[in-house]
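Morning!

As promised:
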Amino acid sequence: MQNILEVQHLAKRFGSSEVLNDISFSLAKGEVVSIIGSSGSGKTTLLRCLNFLEQPDAGRILVSGETLFDAEDPSTKLDRSLRHKRLHFGLVFQSFHLFPQYTAKRNITLAMVLHAKERPNYRAEKREILAEIDARAEALLAEVGLSEKAALYPYQLSGGQQQRVAIARALALNPEILCFDEPTSALDPELSAEVLATIRRLADTGRTMILVTHEMSFARQVSSRVLFMADGRIHEQGTPEEIFGAPKSPRLQSFLANA
Ligand SMILES: Nc1ncnc2c1ncn2[C@@H]1O[C@H](COP(=O)(O)OP(=O)(O)O)[C@@H](O)[C@H]1O
Ligand SMILES: [Mg+2]
């Protein structure tokens, strides 16, 4: 089976500090890969590179066999096709990042409307297209269990509900790969639980996901594979049983002991 994502020898430096070093991994359709590691190990930078929010200094990113980025090939540099490239990925941040001035539903429809405006038939079929977008937003709200909250503003929602709106928003443009950057670290335990339940449902329906998390027991339950990052490298990787049940390197052993 063809991998949906291939990351090859990715490297990124900020000034003189090497933040990502020779990162390679792949992801098959429907797999959930969790990334664990101490603060500062490069997890967020890796997700930002995959979402083309940062330009890597070396390496390649392929989605479904298409080379989206190749540091050696100037024609793939991040440029006007950036928005197209970003459509492959959805990203859910630690701190939700909802637009405070828009309702839950509008937060979800916003990108879909911007995207639809580029369609040649938008003016002629505006009414139908907007109705379709509205229906899709309703379906996404239902998927994250928030049908009743469509008309509320972020400040009227709990942190867990806000994060579920952010998840629905990330799904709106149908990304092939959904990325989460510590989606529950800003939440109390009970609010974390509802967000984790939503993520688990997405995993169960076959979504391909990359999950940066400090929730070790959740990572163990939901992941197909786990990557342990240290100092910008993938220090160890394996199945959840291997990583959590039989960690090989002293570095991972000590990380897990303190997690
Ligand atoms: N924009 C930036 N400029 C300079 N250094 C950065 C920038 N972003 C991240 N870093 C540095 O890169 C390293 C990895 O950061 P990050 O990817 O956020 O790690 P993690 O998400 O694992 O905590 C840290 O040392 C951080 O200070
Ligand atoms: Mg981070």
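The longest helix spans residues 126-143.

Hope this helps with the figure draft.
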